[in-house]
From TrEMBL:
The keyword Isomerase does not apply. PANTHER family: DNA POLYMERASE III SUBUNIT EPSILON. Transmembrane segments: none annotated. The keyword Nuclease applies. This is DNA polymerase III subunit epsilon. It comes from Sporosarcina ureilytica. SMART domains: EXOIII (SM00479). Residues 26-197 form the Exonuclease domain. CDD domains: DEDDh. InterPro entries: Ribonucl_H, RNaseH-like_sf, RNaseH_sf. Coiled coil: none annotated. GO terms for molecular function: 3'-5' exonuclease activity; nucleic acid binding.
Length: 217
């Protein structure tokens, strides 16, 4: 699982043909919770949640771990997430939590990561690994927020729960990593299934949505 010293990696197939059908791909949908948004400075990871999507179906394969932030959780974060200090004091370090998450990704032979406002979650992982003097190779990834903007460019910005209501998908426990990952996974599957009407059926088609606006039927 682990590559050369101070580089964290996992065994994934990076050589998928662009013609690979999306229904033949495996996705890891994940989310993080943190002590706040100042990830570059003092805020830290406190939870990772993930779910496996295969054949454009949300599976029952899930992952959840707390992470010890080595600092107090602010009261407003506890109020928002219900994550208390007692949940994290004996939790794995951020590095160990991320290693465990990567093992989940590898075990499920994931081809791509999915998230809602994905840049924040990947930045959380990147910063925590930097603190531990590790780096990692970012896999192919897609952001449900960005995908919605591509297929519905005139839609005003909404939060995750509002998007789920708009698309008629399931809503799980909010502001918890696994709950938001599950909500995002069902939303992602619905977005892709609707996008089939616009010819978005392969990895190449999905990659092209990063450069092209689509109209959702």
């Amino acid at each position: 699982m682990f590559g050369r010293k101070n580089r964290l990696s996992y065994k994934l197939d990076y050589s998928l043909p662009l013609s690979t059908k999306l229904i033949d791909m495996s996705f890891t949908v994940f989310d993080t919770e943190t002590t706040g948004f100042s990830i570059d400075t003092h805020d830290r990871l406190i939870e990772i949640g993930a779910v496996h999507v295969e054949k454009l179906e949300v599976t029952d394969k899930t992952f959840q771990t707390f992470a010890n932030p080595s600092r107090e959780i602010p009261t407003h974060i506890t109020a928002l997430t219900s994550i208390e200090q007692g949940h994290v004091d004996d939790a794995p370090s951020s590095l160990e939590a991320i290693k465990n998450y990567f093992q989940f990704v590898e075990d499920n032979k994931s081809n791509s990561w999915i998230g809602h406002h994905l840049n924040f979650d990947t930045m959380v992982i990147k910063k925590e690994l930097q603190r531990a003097k590790y780096s990692y190779e970012m896999p192919s990834s897609f952001d449900t927020y960005a995908l919605i903007n591509y297929i519905m460019p005139n839609l005003k910005a909404l939060d995750l729960e509002e998007y789920a209501k708009l698309f008629g998908t399931k809503i799980f426990e909010r502001h918890r990593a696994l709950g938001d990952a599950l909500t995002t996974a069902h939303l992602f599957v619905e977005i892709i299934k609707r996008s089939e009407y616009q010819g978005i059926t392969t990895l190449a088609d999905l990659l092209r949505t990063k450069n092209k606006h689509l109209i959702l039927l």
